[in-house]
Amino acid sequence: MVEILQLMNVQVLEAEDASAGIALARSERPDLILMDISLPGMDGLEATHRLKADPETRHIPVVVLTAHAMRWDEQRARVAGCDGFVTKPIEITSFS
Fold first, then answer.
1. What is the pTM of this model?
2. pLDDT tens by residue, 41-82
3. H runs (alpha helix) in the chain
4. What angle do CA 87, 93, 2 make, to 5 degrees?
5. Domains of the chain: residue spans and CATH
């Protein structure tokens, strides 16, 4: 996915885990965050909740990515503050 976005001239920043992602969002203020639900340590929904609770990052749209979409996952993502929900495998045309 990173390579495809870079081919579309999108600058991509990556984080190893949710805590690093939150710190990166605070320091870099990206235009969009693509958040995986399954992350080591803190999951992506908790990370999203923390980003949306922070005045410094709450304006950044967060789109959740998941390979394990259950019926209730999208609802949980919305409650956490996610602005979008995409299941893997991803249709790249949905980002163009």
1. 0.85
2. 999 999 999 999 999 999 999 999 888 767 778 888 999 999
3. 2-7, 18-28, 44-53, 73-80
4. 70
5. 15-95 (3.40.50.2300)
